[in-house]
Amino acid sequence: MQHILINKRRIILMLFLAFSMTGLFAQKKNVIHPGEVWPDKDGEHIQAHGGAIFKIKNTYYWYGTERSKELDPDSRYVACYSSKDLMNWKNRGIVFQMSNPDTLANNWVLERPKVFYNQKTKKYVMYFHVDVNYKLAQVGIAVSDKATGPFKYVRRFHPLGYESRDIGQFIDEDGKAYLIFEDRPSGGFRIAKLTEDFMDVEKNMSLVKARIEGGTIVKNDGLYYCLGSGLTGWNPNPNQYATATSLEGPWSEFKNIAPPEVNTYSSQSTFLLKIIGSEKTSVIFMGDIWKPDAQWDSRYLWMPMEIGDGKLWLPEPAPWTINVKTGETKILK
Ligand code: DGJ
Questions:
Q1: Domains of the chain from N-terminus onward
Q2: Is residue 330 pLDDT above 90, yes or no?
Q3: DSSP string of 262-322?
């Protein structure tokens, strides 16, 4: 009898260990830890680098490049994750996989994917930076009927005929969509309006004469804040912002978002996420902490920003939490 009991206990213990290892007992997270490994619901570090987020109904979708070690090196990958609270993310898989689009050299890159949802066509339109040795400088487009893909490659081109390296996305309060792209020969970055179906870039709004990449924009209390990093490759630098009352400018001088010596706490901007809650509107800085020689282990630095009266500031990273319903964030120091 005692024998059976011990065996029963052993089996329960073994089952418990097996479940814990497969993540079935994975703990719900209620804190974001900037710079640390960020496990998804399966316990794997999130692979959504150089990414951005949008919300449909009450679900947030986070897209970025998937850079896991074991992937086929001849293809490039975009992954999608979904969440209802911005803290616990479910891996929705690789939503776009592309092998060499046509005649590009083997070392071609696909970076900084950004997805726009078009209410009229009901299509999800992905823009991404496609390049070879960072000299081709084009954007690519892929389209899907669902947020979770599969996305189908459409074409690659120079938006409005200009070179385009890092890209960013912005959707204004009126639903109009804009591509932000770095145009090095013109000495700055452009903000350009997309066509109604989002399948093309139709109008230049601004050429912001600043050597900025990783560009992103948020609108807060009627003022546009654009933010980006300097041009130092994968190495961090002091990210800066400027403001304007119209996307056509004029844009203010650029100012630092953090003490310059901390180099944006070793991160680089990729997106500004605005959460409009019942109590508060919060703006979250999303940055990448790149590990150029171990890209799969690159980390994320997300922090709620101080914003208002034309000022934008990134607080020192610390664990924090958010209530997406109220929009309130709390830095746990
Ligand atoms: C900086 C860009 O922001 C990244 O997206 C990437 O293109 C690196 N340069 C490559 O060095």
A1: 37-331 (2.115.10.20)
A2: yes
A3: GHHHH-EEEEEEEEE-SS-EEEEEEEEE--TTSGGG-EEEEEEPEEETTEEE-PPP--EEE
